[in-house]
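Design job #97: recover the sequence.
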C-alpha cells in the first residue's frame, strides 16, 4: 500500500472513530454562545486546522451551522483589537496569529526558516496546482524536462503530496497540492487561484527549453 493510500485509510479511520464516538455520546445541546466558545477552545487547543465535519461532530451541529459559528468567531477576531484570526482552508478551519504580529512573535519565538523556491520548482508547482491530480510524466510533458528533483523538493516543503494512483498501465502516482500550499500562498481554496491561460503554459514550455539548452551549452 502506498503512502497516499495509507494516508487516506488513516483519515477514513479517524472519521469513522469520530462518528462512533458521536453515536455513543449523549446528545450535545449547546447555545450559539456555548458552541462558539467550544469551537474557539477546540481550535486553540488543536493548533493546526480542524475539518468542519469534525467540529460539527464535537458541538453537535450541522456543517452549515458550524460554518456560521466559525464565521461569527472570525468576525469577532477581525473587528477586535487582538492578535488572532480564523483562517479557512477548503473544508477546514484554523485559529492562528495575524500576519502583522510576526515582528512581535520573533522577539520570543524562533524565526521560521524562509521558504525559497527556484523558478523550476515554482513552475512545477504551478502546473501541479492548476492541473491536479496530475502525474509526473504529464508535468514533464508540459515543461519538456525532468521534474524529479523539483517534485521531491516540493514534497519536502509539504507543498504537494501523493493523491493516489491513476488507473492506467503502470499506475502512475498522482500529485496535488496540500493545505500548506494554501497557507503559504494565502488562499482559502484552489478556486481562489488566478486563472492560468494557454499563453502562460506555453511560456513554461519555452523557459524549460531554454533551461535544457543552457545545460547543453546550446
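Job complete. Output follows.
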Amino acid at each position: 500500500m502506498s503512502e497516499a493510500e495509507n494516508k487516506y485509510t488513516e483519515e477514513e479511520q479517524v472519521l469513522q472513530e469520530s462518528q462512533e464516538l458521536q453515536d455513543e455520546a449523549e446528545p450535545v445541546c449547546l447555545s450559539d454562545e456555548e458552541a462558539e466558545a467550544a469551537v474557539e477552545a477546540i481550535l486553540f487547543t488543536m493548533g493546526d486546522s480542524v475539518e468542519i465535519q469534525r467540529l460539527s461532530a464535537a458541538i453537535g451541529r450541522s456543517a452549515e451551522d458550524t460554518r456560521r459559528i466559525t464565521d461569527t468567531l472570525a468576525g469577532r477576531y477581525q473587528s477586535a483589537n487582538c492578535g488572532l484570526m480564523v483562517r479557512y482552508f477548503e473544508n477546514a478551519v484554523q485559529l492562528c496569529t495575524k500576519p502583522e504580529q510576526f515582528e512581535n512573535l520573533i522577539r520570543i519565538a524562533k524565526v521560521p526558516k524562509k521558504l525559497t523556491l527556484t523558478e523550476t520548482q515554482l513552475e512545477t508547482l504551478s502546473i501541479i496546482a492548476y492541473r491536479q491530480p496530475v502525474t509526473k510524466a504529464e508535468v514533464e510533458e508540459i515543461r519538456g524536462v525532468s521534474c524529479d528533483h523539483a517534485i521531491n523538493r516540493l514534497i519536502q516543503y509539504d507543498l504537494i503530496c501523493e493523491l493516489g494512483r491513476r488507473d492506467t498501465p503502470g499506475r502512475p502516482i498522482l500529485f496535488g497540492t496540500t493545505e500548506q500550499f494554501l497557507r503559504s500562498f494565502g488562499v482559502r481554496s484552489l478556486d481562489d487561484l488566478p486563472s492560468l491561460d494557454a499563453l502562460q503554459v506555453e511560456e513554461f514550455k519555452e523557459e524549460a527549453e531554454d533551461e535544457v539548452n543552457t545545460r547543453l551549452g546550446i
